[in-house]
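Chapter summary example: a protein plus calcium ion.
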Amino acid sequence: MGDKAKILIVEDEEAIRTGLVDVFVYHGYEVDIADNGNDGLSMAGSGQFDLVLLDVMLPGINGFDILKQLRDQDREQAVIMLTAKSTDEDIIEGLSLGADDYVAKPFSITQLVLRVEAVLRRTRPTGDSAVFIELDDAIKLDTQNLSADINNQTTTFTRREMDILQYLHQHHERPVPRDELLTNVWGYARNLDLETRTVDIHIAKLRRKIEPVPANPRHLVTIRGAGYKLLSK
Ligand code: CA
């Protein structure tokens, strides 16, 4: 993987700010902070951060106005709004102003970290991740050209299908739950229960492509009650 992403946390409540710093430093991110809207705006506008976690209610300029000014300046800056308010109007306002996502307080730290990862996956292409994945001597996946050499025959994949395989490969040491695939591969931040069947359909398609006997998979296996796992030799 490339170098770690830089995150700016704009939050005036010290306890929350400190907690967020701890969590993201723990996850290996570079973190900087602003405790008021004016500092938040100038730092976010500097273009040196991959993502900004932006509180709405701030001393000085509020989070919505910061976001609006960033977008008015054509800043492509990734932004996730944080707010104590969670009414539909707030969500709509934040998203219509161009926030990449929106998290209502009190939030689950795990969900927030997953959402940050999902937004960064969309906005920050990983330059140097592995191009080829070898599942065994007969199956070699080309993640860039979306194809695979399987028993010397070429099979093609959609970007989504290859993203699923790549994600499972990156986390091959453990089963990956369907929720996690939806969040990190599809980028869904809400309604996690809604679309788990979509994941199963994609897995079934992938098995027909890469498994000699799809009904009895050797590589793309189900770990009952835990998720999917990609086994390579
Ligand atoms: Ca606040």
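Key point: The pocket of calcium ion is lined by residues 12-13, 55, 57-58 (CB under 6 Å).
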